[in-house]
Amino acid sequence: MTPDQLLARLIYRDGLMLIIDKPAGLPVHAGPRGGVNLEQYLDGLRFGLPRAPSLAHRLDRDTSGCLVLGRHRKALARLGKLFASSRIGKTYWAVVVGAPPTPEGRIDAPLAKRSTEARGWWMKVDAEGQSAMTDWRVLGTANGLCWLELKPETGRTHQIRVHCAHLGCPVLGDPIYGDRTAPPTEPLHLHARRVVVPLYANREAIDVTAPPPPHMLAHLQALGFDPAQEPLRPVLEDRHAADGASVLAPARRPR
After folding, report:
1. Of the CATH numbers 3.30.1330.60, 3.40.800.20, 3.20.20.80, 3.30.2350.10, which one belongs to the domain with range 3-250?
2. Residue 30's pLDDT is what?
3. Does position 238 have pLDDT exceeding 50, yes or no?
4. Domain locations in the chain as residue ranges
5. φ/ψ of residue 7, rounded to 5
6. Cβ distance 188 to 110 under 8 Å?
7. Mind listing the pLDDT tens digit for each residue in 89-138?
8. 60, 62, 226, 238: which is the annotated catalytic residue?
9. Cα separation of 184 and 199, whole Å?
10. What are all long-range contacts of 155-160, with beta carbons under 8 Å and residues at least 24 apart?
11. Which of 108, 149, 176, 245 is the most exposed place for a label (fewest CB within 10 A)?
């Protein structure tokens, strides 16, 4: 990842917020052992502001798609309240092994963190854990796989991955919650497809979609996805922001 490559993945920008299409395989921040991470490149997205933008939420290292950044402290505080109150709409796509028991539904299964020296940490369904709810809908099935649309109402760590496994259909390529008897032969097939952010009181919510990553396309197409039906990537145009900076913002939003 280079600064120019990250800039090319910018899909929304205004005076308070950026949304990027995060690539799979890149952690958003450094772990205990350090290593390359997204935060190292955020200075290239200042666009004239004195500080680099900061993460308003998290995506797992191997999850791709819509990632929201706040451009300054006040923006982060506003976004934080929206995320905490579940007012930001999040839609994920996953390719899973098997299928849920019904074409659509809601899983309400609290989650708690577990840890052992041998395995490390993981999340587990636990009646004493934190509340966690996810709505799902089947978009396609074929060859023992299923294409799911998932809308988490809460934002627990690994929530979608644990909930899919709890339904009996783990995310394809999941090394933690999938088949642990053998290493996965494919990368994780989980994508943050869409985010809807009601950031401004007197405007429509900002509605942004990220295209599926290359490693998911073959399975998605086999399951009925048609790339020709994808909304066009937003055209970025110069606009004068509320903070006085000239910014790039979508000329139209994908639907």
Report:
1. 3.30.2350.10
2. 83
3. no
4. 3-250
5. -60, -35
6. no
7. 999 999 999 999 999 999 999 999 887 766 677 889 899 999 999 999 99
8. 60
9. 39
10. 155/57, 155/83, 155/86, 155/90, 156/111, 156/123, 156/130, 156/132, 157/111, 157/113, 157/123, 158/60, 158/111, 158/122, 158/123, 159/111, 159/123, 159/132, 159/134, 160/92, 160/94, 160/134, 160/190
11. 108
Give the Å distances, CA to CA, from 121 to 115, 158, 176: 4, 11, 10
**Alpha carbons 19 and 134: distance in angstroms, whole number:** 23
Q: pLDDT digits over 8-61, tens only?
A: 999 999 999 999 999 999 999 887 777 899 999 999 999 999 999 999 999 999
Could you report the per-residue pLDDT of 192-203, keeping only the tens digit for each? 999 999 999 999
Specify whether 60 is catalytic: yes
* Section 234-249 average pLDDT: 45
Q: How confident is the model at residue 224 (pLDDT cuts 50, 70, 90)?
A: very high
Q: Which residues does 218 contact at the CB level (< 8 Å), separation at least 6?
A: none
176 DSSP β-pair partners: none
